[in-house]
Amino acid sequence: MGDRKVPNRMLETYNLYAEIIEPYCDKYLNEEYKAICLHVVTKLCRKRTCPLVSGNPVEWAAGIIYAMGQNNFIFDPSRPIHMTADEIVEPLGVSRIAAISKAAEIKKILQITPTNAEYVLESDIYGNAGIWFVKINGYRGDARLLPVEVQVECKRKGMIPYVPALR
């Protein structure tokens, strides 16, 4: 999930959140969720004004987990890992409203959407059609169906997360 470079001044904050998120994900989610949640912590710690330094750390951690769950359709019972909002927050001992509020703030700060591959579980990226739609010469199309040379160029321009034909 990218690098975890956290500014030295924020290492203590990062470690505090990792101590909450890692055991939670180990018990209730999986390695992919742990990686993506820690990626969010890293991104927030790199902000000039990091929201994680004020307020209740457990509520913020719940917000991170909730935001990544929501962004990855954790509420859908057809998903391999699915939970209700109450099931997400209950082990952390925070209210659903607190987690939802923090999740909304996090999603706004980091511009998290289901079509932004940075915040999608790695195993779901290829199957997420919204990530792969590109606009070339005025036409929108699925980059997964384009010739490999065009895929390479799309990746070079940051339009897609990787070259599907080479994976």
Percentage of helical residues? 40-55%
Structural class: mainly alpha
Question: How are helices and strands ordered from N to C?
Answer: HHHHHHHEEH
Assign an overall shape.
globular
For the termini, the CA-CA separation is 16 Å
Poorly predicted runs of 5 or more residues: none
Number of strands: 2
Mean pLDDT: 95
Which fold name corresponds to the CATH topology of the largest domain? Cyclin A, domain 1
Instruction: Provide the CATH top-level class of the largest domain.
Output: Mainly Alpha
Please name the fourth-level CATH homologous superfamily of the largest domain.
Cyclin-like
Our count of domains comes out at 2
Largest sheet: 2 strands, antiparallel
Strand content: under 5%
Q: How many distinct helices?
A: 8
With strands numbered from the N-terminus, the spatial order across the biggest sheet is: 1-2
**What's the architecture of the largest domain in CATH terms?**
Orthogonal Bundle
Cα Rg: 17 Å
Description:
- With 167 residues, this protein is mainly alpha-helical.
- The chain is built from 8 helices and 2 strands; from the N terminus they run H-H-H-H-H-H-H-E-E-H.
- It folds into 2 domains: 116 residues, Orthogonal Bundle (Cyclin A, domain 1); 38 residues, no CATH class.
- The protein has a two-stranded antiparallel sheet with strand order 1-2.
- The longest helix has 18 residues.
- It is globular, with a radius of gyration of 17 Å.
- The model has no long low-confidence stretch (mean pLDDT 95).
